[in-house]
Amino acid sequence: xxxxxxxxxxxxxxxxxxxxxxxxxxxxxxxxxxxxxxxxxxxxxxxxxxxxxxxxxxxxxxxxxxxxxxxxxxxxxxxxxxxxxxxxxxxxxxxxxxxxxxxxxxxxxxxxxxxxxxxxxxxxxxxxxxxxxxxxxxxxxxxxxxxxxxxxxxxxxxxxxxxxxxxxxxxxxxxxxxxxxxxxxxxxxxxxxxxxxxxxxxxxxxxxxxxxxxxxxxxxxxxxxxxxxxxxxxxxxxxxxxxxxxxxxxxxxxxxxxxxxxxxxxxxxxxxxxxxxxxxxxx
Length: 283
Fold this sequence. Notes:
Elements: E1 4-5, E2 26-34, E3 39-43, E4 48-62, E5 65-69, E6 73-77, E7 83-98, E8 111-114, H1 117-126, H2 138-152, E9 155-156, E10 159-161, H3 166-177, H4 185-191, H5 196-207, H6 211-228, H7 233-239, H8 245-256, H9 260-265, H10 272-277
Parallel strand pairs: 1-2
Antiparallel strand pairs: 2-7, 3-7, 4-5, 4-6, 4-7, 5-10, 6-8, 8-9
Helix pairs in contact: 1-2, 6-8, 7-8
């Protein structure tokens, strides 16, 4: 049985086989090309899953939050965790399924990971292995190195934590439905039937962020989704309620440490002029 998957369907990401039943600690799959704007219903695996994106934007949602995966990054999903995935733009992904006891120090929570050039090449090489590769030999040694690199991968701050309180969930849903709203925090508190102080305290308690930082994180996630679909920085800024592109760029730089054009370019956005306009995300 080959581990290479050539079908161009989003179901590739959930695996066309029973990966939990394959007697190997690590299984690598290749989704060579996945169509635009797809979504997978909530599902889970015993094995943990790594989804690495070559192009497009991937979203992973669990009960406690939303993770966004830009090109050249990956999302790590612990084994047994119920999750749904969604792609924005034309996506190309590679998947790794890992038994929870395969190695120590793997993340125990869902997170977005930066993928080094070495980790990327190891992952791409592993997708060419037979599913029942020899457990002793070159393939097994490469898998061991891959796991070492995976354990060392740094976490990217591309997580939108979701509150559990019913009123704060309502706040999140309203912000998602109207991200361009410039209503002040007091107005948002009134809309969900709370005082500003109570809402601020509970939001900090449940998601570990102030209202302003949480909304900024939401705007980063929504902006990357829109940029992945080819929208310009100017259009994205207006859609998110900023008076100008410069205001949006300032927010993005504060959140991500660099402006959108540089962020996209460093993740394989291709032509620098197009990346600067936010027109493309991947070649």
